[in-house]
């Protein structure tokens, strides 16, 4: 078990490695590996475990009735997924797919929410962390809505890169999306996105190579 990424997770915030080791057996832990492209959770299914990514990345995408794919996000190592649906026993509205070979730790959400028989402080802390995690996920959804609300491609790109720059605390960073995935995330045509990125670079707003971006205009970090 890689406890480094467990300690970095919001779910285990405030706990030491020995405390995490002591708590894990109470949470019905299961570790599974997935090959790149393999479906972890399928849209419409119900699961009672949240997943914590120990290795790899997880792509979350929605497929509508006409087989149009909308990329919602890519979750990186140390992040969790599926917690809100697990809490509510609600069918998933998206597919969760291994974007690279993955190792996932699954934890029983009910075991986290229900106080253990011992009433230990660590269990109360992890339950509190779950609430914090759900609130953070709600904020992430609100940010995406903010980014995709404008009609213009440039405005969407600037909104996304500005928030990414603030998240990294720097004007130069890598994003987790390739060009096709970024187009899906922003809800725009890939060719139109590539053309707009080139125009933004020509206008002196950004520099980029593949998924590496540098914001050359201070306005993008305002």
Describe the protein's architecture and organization.
The protein has 222 residues and is an alpha+beta fold. The protein has eight helices and eleven strands. The strands form three sheets. The chain has a four-stranded antiparallel sheet with strand order 1-8-3-6. Strands 2-7-4-5 form a four-stranded antiparallel sheet. It has a three-stranded antiparallel sheet with strand order 9-11-10. Strand 10 and strand 11 form a beta hairpin. Helix 5 (121-148) packs antiparallel against helix 6. The longest helix is centred in the middle third of the chain and has 28 residues, at 121-148. The model has no long low-confidence stretch (mean pLDDT 89).
Kindly list the characteristics that best describe this protein.
globular; 23% strand; single chain; alpha+beta
Summed up, what is this model?
The chain is built from eight helices and eleven strands.
Q: Number of helical runs?
A: 8
Distance between the ends: 41 Å
Q: Taking Cα atoms only, what radius of gyration do you get, to the nearest Å?
A: 19 Å
Spatial order of strands in the largest sheet: 1-8-3-6
Low-confidence stretches: none
User: How many β-strand stretches?
Assistant: 11
SSE order, as H and E? HHEEEEEEHEEHHHEHHEE
Please state the average pLDDT score.
Answer: 89
Strand content: 15-25%
């Amino acid at each position: 078990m890689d406890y480094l990424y467990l300690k970095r997770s919001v779910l285990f915030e405030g706990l030491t490695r020995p405390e995490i080791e002591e708590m894990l057996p109470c949470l019905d832990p299961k570790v599974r590996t997935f090959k790149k492209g393999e479906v972890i959770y399928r849209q419409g299914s119900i699961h009672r475990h949240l997943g914590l990514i120990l290795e790899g990345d997880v792509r979350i995408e929605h497929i509508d009735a006409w087989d149009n794919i909308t990329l919602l996000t890519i979750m990186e190592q140390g992040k969790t997924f599926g917690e809100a649906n697990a809490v509510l026993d609600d069918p998933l509205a998206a597919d969760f797919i291994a974007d690279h070979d993955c190792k996932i730790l699954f934890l029983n959400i009910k075991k986290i929410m229900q106080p253990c028989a011992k009433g230990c402080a660590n269990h109360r802390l992890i339950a509190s962390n779950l609430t914090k995690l759900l609130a953070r996920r709600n904020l992430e959804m609100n940010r995406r809505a903010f980014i995709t609300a404008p009609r213009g491609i440039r405005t969407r790109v600037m909104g996304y890169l500005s928030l990414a720059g603030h998240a990294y605390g720097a004007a130069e960073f890598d994003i987790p999306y390739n060009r096709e995935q970024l187009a899906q995330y922003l809800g725009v045509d890939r060719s139109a996105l590539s053309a707009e990125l080139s125009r933004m670079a020509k206008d002196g707003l950004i520099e980029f190579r593949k998924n590496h971006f540098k914001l050359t205009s201070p306005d993008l970090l305002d």
